[in-house]
Amino acid sequence: MRRFLPFAAAVACVLAVSACGGGGGGTAAPPTQVSDPSKVSGEVTWWDTTRPDSEGPTFQALIKEFQAKYPQVKVNYVNVPSDQAQNQFQTAAQAGSGAPDVIRSEVAWTSQFASLGYLQPLDGTRAVDKPDDFLPGPLSSTKFNGKTYAVPQVTDTLALIYNKRLLKEAGHEEPPRTIAELKQTALDVKAKTGAAGLALNVDSYFLLPFMYGEGGDLLDVANKKIVVNSPANVKAMETVADLISSGAAPKPATTESYANAMTALKEGKAAMIYNGPWALSEIYQGKEFKDKKNLGIAPVPAGSVKAAAPTGGWNLAIYAGSKNIPAAYEFVRFMTTTEAQAKIAKEISLLPTRTSAYADPDVQGNPDVAVFKPIMDTAVPRPWIPEGGQLFQPLLEGYQALVGGKSGPADMLKGVDEQYRGIMKDWS
Length: 428
Fold this sequence. Notes:
InterPro entries: SBP. By secondary structure, this protein is α+β, with helices and mostly antiparallel strands. Helix content is 38%, strand content 14%. The two termini are 29 Å apart.
């Protein structure tokens, strides 16, 4: 998960395949398997959503390894910004032209694309190798109506990422474990070092740890209930508002706050942020972390109920209209092997989705992965439903109104609830 910036242009199409048309083929049987996979030929266009400077080189190196093993398959690598890929794929698949053979799909997009018939079903194909080896959480995000439509590539969650030097100068040898400690630590940093204590990211995904910490959530999927406007979530929003009003967190801008928070951390202008493993390769480029030992990673601080963060990650999915399905199967299979995941974990600290990868010496030798793995074990699965991708825009707008002083916590959530009822029409 990187900066969950949901799109709005395709909202009306999400639930009505017949109205949206396009892409089709999602229910077709997979093509006959080839007898010798190494002889597969074709041309595979892959839309990658990683940061091209800090993460992209690792994935491009994997492509070279794939093409050495499959010399008759050409891979066209296209880097698409993660905040644009969802809408661009939707548009291309709807038009039936310009969609990639393989897309790196955020976990929340997979069921949506599958519901629209844009993804090739993968059960029984070579794309899915050793499914029992995948962690249950990431694997669950690849399913829709009992079928598999993607393969988990990397998984993630949020943690408290902090500057050890600044915390130590403020008198704190250990990171905060509770929201109360977070507030006090941030205030101490501000008072004793002049740096900001906590840099907030005004993105709806980053509100979830505060909600989960108070026992709140967005939906009760099992009972088809909208629960965003709950006392627990009101308390969570009051917590966020208090962090800002107290000065523990400077008032963030309502746009570009992700980039602002990252820059502040890297330059030593802020001591703490919430972020995930995908951010580490960029953070280590900052002047404060040339010595990697200065970077601290800890679970998000606990609210009154628990400490918990959302499950994120990325899957590899195949476009149902691809003309190169056999080659796409081999590409997805290769890019999700234990060896590929170990390379990714070793070089850029992205978390594997395979149990076997965590036994690899290269993975065990990465201290960042070692810290994130137990945090990942407590991550809360998000609702893997077609509407899941639509839940974040109303929450983002509410968060912006809260930060901008246009709405209080209770009114903010009331407004989000009203928008959710327009999306989840048959939910109570």
